[in-house]
Amino acid sequence: MNSIFFDLSFVDQINSAVIRLVAQHGDFFHDITRILLIHFLVPLEKFLIGLSPVVVLLGIGVLAWHALRRWTTVVALVAGLYLIGCFGLWDKLMQTLALMLVSTTLTIAIGLPMGIWMSASPRLRKVLEPVLDVMQTLPTFVYLVPVLMLFGLGKVPAVLATVIYALPPLVRLTDLGIRQVDKEVVEASRSFGSTPWQLLINVNLPLARPSIMAGLNQAVMMALAMVVIASMIGSRGLGEDVLSGINNMDMGRGLQGGFSIVILAVVIDRITQAYGKGRRERQALRQKRKGGQA
User: Fold this and answer.
1) Over 80: is that where the pLDDT of 294 sits?
2) Are the C-beta atoms of 226 and 161 separated by less than 8 Å?
3) Which own/partner contact pairs does 38-43 have at CB distance under 8 Å and 24+ positions apart?
4) Which fold has domain 13-293?
5) Pairwise CA distance, residues 167 & 79, whole Å
6) End-to-end alpha carbon distance in the chain
7) Cα separation of 168 and 223, whole Å?
8) CA angle, residues 22, 27, 30, in degrees to nearest 5
9) Where are the domains of the chain?
10) pLDDT tens digits, residue range 165-176?
């Protein structure tokens, strides 16, 4: 009955290619792991855990106030983080935050230039769009396979898998934001003698900022969605409690860890969304609130 199918499989070919890649460039992958761990992840994690929780909560409160300018929202966000500490998960929150900061930094370092390049090159856009489509439609567990094969277990493969998963929205929205900049403004800037670099820095990026910040917001949310999955390969943090709750049928621990991730997601979402709005838009919202209170 199955004789109508050809015998077609690429499993052996891919496995052989990965084995050759690891054999030839294993030292390179080891160096990447060592650099990310020694110079970024471990120092940042130790620094955050070493800080007094009061300092962290005050710092996030000041950042939230600068972005939102609403005391009720700021107090609610800080209270949510304080609640995570009350759960006994403060150190794991700092581990997750360190992972998020490193992953987000790498995502910006790769995604922002790629989006800018795409906006300037229609040919590159045609090549990258199907790649980004595949990256966004692949199941999240699939991202773990190549990084595990190349980097093994630990925090570094978790960071790299998170970066790959979170990259597409930032690239797409950066490209879209720059292409939607008013052509008349661009032409006026060129007529005044702006170089391509000046045009990018002084015109395109500032006007595309809301779209870029929306892409960053989506990238951060997708990175948080990888926290639980990344804990399966040794990233630790808040996702570890969710995974432990699933493995041990401990519903309370799993829900508590999941609720903590939701709180962190809400805090980051509210702050990044506020910074995504232009200064004038934020000032208009403040004036509107003052008028409503009056």
Assistant:
1) no
2) yes
3) 40/102, 41/98, 41/99, 41/102, 41/155, 41/156, 41/159
4) MetI-like fold (1.10.3720)
5) 31
6) 78
7) 11
8) 95
9) 13-293
10) 889 999 999 999
